[in-house]
Amino acid sequence: MKFFQSLLVAPAALGLLAPNLLNAAEINLEDFSRYSDKGVESTSTLSELYPSDWSYQAIRDVVASRECNDLFPYGPISRFEAAVIINSCLKGFDQITSLERRLIDEFSSEISILASRVDIPDSRFDEFDAGSFSTTTVASFSADFAIGAVDGAASQKTSFDYGYEVGLTTSFTGEDSLDVTLVAGTGQLSEFDLSQDQGDTLVVDAISYTLPLGDKLTAFISDGVEGSALFNTACVYEGPSDTLSSCGAVSSAIDEDAAISGGATYDFGNGLTASIGYEGEGDTASGLATKEGKDSIAGQLAYSTDDYGFSVTFAEIEATTTSDDQFTAFNAFLKPTQDGFPSVSFGYEWGYDGDAAYAADASASYFLGLQWDELGEGTFGLAAGTKEAMAENVDDDLLMYEAWYAYPINDGMSITPLIYTKDNASGTDDELGVMVKTSFSF
Questions:
Q1: In the prediction, which pLDDT does 413 show?
Q2: Given the DSSP bridges, would you call strands 260-269 and 390-391 parallel, antiparallel or unpaired?
Q3: N or C: which end of the chain has fewer CB within 10 A?
């Protein structure tokens, strides 16, 4: 009885909190979510300049003295609009006044963002790029709260988890990307996977650099990102659980927790891509691509359109210094154009354990997911699949079933309840989990 009481308490408690959270967040979260977007428009929503502000008066004076009155609109203006006016009005002038210099200082970030987005070179603004925090860096933030409980083999009482993530993205050429992820989190609900290795200490979780090599080829190198980061696995199911998130490609989409990774993808056009990924122990004495270090390599061929797609992925994973495991996965999806029909995602993976006996060296995983992207205000999903690869000599069907609904409260906040069951081996209780996650992005 205590377990089911906790299941009732979990969503009920969050339901009571949601209206209050909504009222508290309505003003700020929408602005923050717009700020986290990578478009120039995001900056313009941060604040407004009014006639009582010194900068508003100064811009009006500059507009009058430089005879560009047609650039000045009526009423309040945003900071980005101010930057556009300053940049446009001062074009063609080699000398600037102290007031104009003060305005450039005040709006240097917005001016630099404008220049980087529309490729406007201007030597007068160079000093604001050198030796300062890059204005091409975009920061995004997310926080997750989860409450729930599990009954069965992995029984646990009601738990409250949280996770926090900061993402920093910087471009140096306009086409490349340096990405850094910082994370912190603690908890017991493994399906939401919010717990981090360093607990509540915010640490660098991953750093990567991605760059185009010509028009068709893109490559990356990383510490902490899976080697399959550039793969285009044919799956449109976006369930919240950790177990079924791989869409059946459990091992072939390499994610062996090896620190160093790299990969590349080639876009042939018309939806056809070919990718390769690698992971190794380059941060240890074992080294990359050595007999002592454990290496993983994978390749993928994928084709997709707006309505359907498929992919084939192959991986060879070094399990020990003397044996390799091999995996092949086939994935496909279909998105019907008729209203009311769900998208369908399917995955099947078979593998061979290089260290196992011949009669027990094969394994298989499979997955089927349905997703309604517009069911009411949110997204609803159903899925079933193996909770772990099933060896050929095991009779038990180790399956997982899940149902979830992601409801957006506003642009920066959503609530996702999840219920799932796991069929465990004979003689072991099956598992039932009920939990709710509240996500914030800004």
A1: 95
A2: unpaired
A3: N
**Among the three residues 128, 148, 178, which one is the final residue of a domain in this structure?**
128
**Model confidence at 172: pLDDT above 60:** yes
One domain for residues 387 and 241? yes
- The lowest-confidence range among 51-60, 354-363, 400-409 is 354-363
Phi-psi sector, 234: left (phi>0), alpha (psi -120 to 50), beta: beta
Same structural domain, 21 and 120:
no
Q: What residue numbers bound the domain in which 47 lies? A: 41-128
Final residue of a domain: which of 128, 154, 183?
Answer: 128
C-alpha–C-alpha distance, residues 384 and 366, integer Å? 9
What tokens appear for 260 in the block?
């160093």
Taking CA atoms, 102 is separated from 53, 59, 203, 307, in Å, by 14, 10, 38, 54
Domains held by the chain: number: 2
Number of Cβ within 10 Å of residue 158's Cβ equals: 20
Say which residue, 76 or 409, is predicted with more confidence: 409
Same domain for 123 and 141, yes or no, is no
Rounded Cα–Cα distance for residues 217 and 219 (Å): 7
Q: Which of 352, 254, 353 lies closest to 295, judged by CA?
A: 254
What confidence tens digit (pLDDT) does each residue in 125-170 have?
444 444 444 556 788 899 999 999 999 867 778 999 999 999 998 8
- 334 and 423, same domain (yes or no): yes
Contact status, residue 437 vs residue 415, Cβ threshold 8 Å: yes
Q: Which two tokens stand for residue 231?
A: 């793969």
